[in-house]
C-alpha cells in the first residue's frame, strides 16, 4: 500500500481514468513537469505535491480503468488501493477532483452501463459522496468539444445530477488543462475549501 503520505491536514485529491489529462492538470496546478502522454498506468501510487497558489497538499492518485497492456488483476488492485486510500484519509481530503475526458466520458459511461455494471466514473463519483468528500468533476479537453452545453448536461444526467449543468457549477467544472484554462475547477475547489474551513470554525460553537 501507499506509505509515504506526508502528515498534512488539508488535502485535495485528484482521481481519474487513465489518459484523461491528469498529469497535464497537475502541471498547471503545481508547476512541476510530469511525464504526459506516456505509457498509461505508469503512476501506481499516490504522489503528493504542494498546490502552489494555495496552502494545501494535492495528491495525484493513480489512473484507473482500462489501460492497454495492464492486466485485469493489476487494474482491479489499483482501483482497490485508490478506494482504500480515500477511505483511510477521507477526513483530511477536503475535496476530490474527479477528472474526466469531456469528449469521451458520456460514451464510455454509456458503453459500460448495464444490469450488473457500473461505469468507473459513476462509481467513483458516488463513492466519494458516500464517504462525504465533496467532489468537483473536472471535465477536461473541452477544447475538443463542440456541443458544450449538451455534453455537460448529458454528463450531469449520467452522474445523477439534474440538468442543466449550469446549476452545478461547484460540481461540474469544464476545463482545458492543455490550454491552461482551468479556472472553473480552481473556483469550485476553493468554494469547497472555504466551506470546509467554515465548518471547522462552527465546530467550536
Ligand atoms: N485536447 C486536449 N488534450 C489534452 C488536454 N489535457 C490533456 N490532453 C492530452 O491528453 C493526453 C493524456 O494526457 P495526460 O496528462 O498524460 O493524461 P493522464 O491522465 O495523466 O494519463 P495517465 O498517465 O495515463 O494517467 C495527452 O496527449 C495530453 O496532451 C486538454 O485539455 N485538451
Automatic annotation (TrEMBL):
Keyword line: Cell cycle, Cell division, GTP-binding, Magnesium, Metal-binding, Nucleotide-binding, Septation
Single biological process term from Gene Ontology: cell division
Cofactor entry: Mg(2+)
GO-annotated molecular function: GTP binding; metal ion binding
A Pfam family this chain is assigned to: MMR_HSR1
Start and end residues of each EngB-type G domain: 8-195
Family classification: Belongs to the TRAFAC class TrmE-Era-EngA-EngB-Septin-like GTPase superfamily. EngB GTPase family.
Function: Necessary for normal cell division and for the maintenance of normal septation.
NCBIfam families xref list: PRK04213.1, small_GTP
Protein name per Swiss-Prot or TrEMBL: Probable GTP-binding protein EngB
Organism this protein belongs to: Halosimplex carlsbadense 2-9-1
Gene symbol of the encoding locus: engB
Amino acid at each position: 500500500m501507499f506509505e509515504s503520505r506526508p502528515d498534512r491536514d488539508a488535502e485535495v485529491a485528484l482521481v481519474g481514468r487513465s489518459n484523461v489529462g491528469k498529469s497535464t492538470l497537475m502541471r498547471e496546478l503545481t508547476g512541476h513537469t510530469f511525464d504526459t502522454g506516456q505509457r498509461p498506468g505508469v503512476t501506481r501510487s499516490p504522489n503528493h505535491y504542494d498546490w502552489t497558489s494555495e496552502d494545501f497538499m494535492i495528491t495525484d492518485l493513480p489512473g484507473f480503468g482500462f489501460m492497454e497492456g495492464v492486466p485485469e488483476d493489476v487494474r482491479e488492485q489499483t482501483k482497490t488501493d485508490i478506494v482504500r486510500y480515500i477511505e483511510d484519509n477521507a477526513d483530511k481530503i477536503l475535496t476530490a477532483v474527479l477528472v474526466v475526458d469531456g469528449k469521451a466520458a458520456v460514451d464510455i459511461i454509456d458503453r459500460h452501463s448495464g444490469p450488473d455494471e457500473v461505469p468507473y466514473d459513476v462509481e467513483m463519483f458516488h463513492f466519494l459522496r458516500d464517504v462525504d468528500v465533496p467532489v468537483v468533476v473536472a471535465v477536461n479537453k473541452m477544447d475538443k468539444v463542440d456541443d458544450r452545453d449538451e455534453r455537460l448536461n448529458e454528463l450531469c444526467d449520467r452522474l445523477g445530477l439534474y440538468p442543466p449543468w449550469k446549476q452545478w457549477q461547484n460540481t461540474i467544472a469544464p476545463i482545458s488543462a492543455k490550454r491552461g484554462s482551468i479556472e472553473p475547477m480552481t473556483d469550485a475547489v476553493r468554494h469547497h475549501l472555504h466551506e470546509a474551513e467554515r465548518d471547522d470554525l462552527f465546530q467550536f460553537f
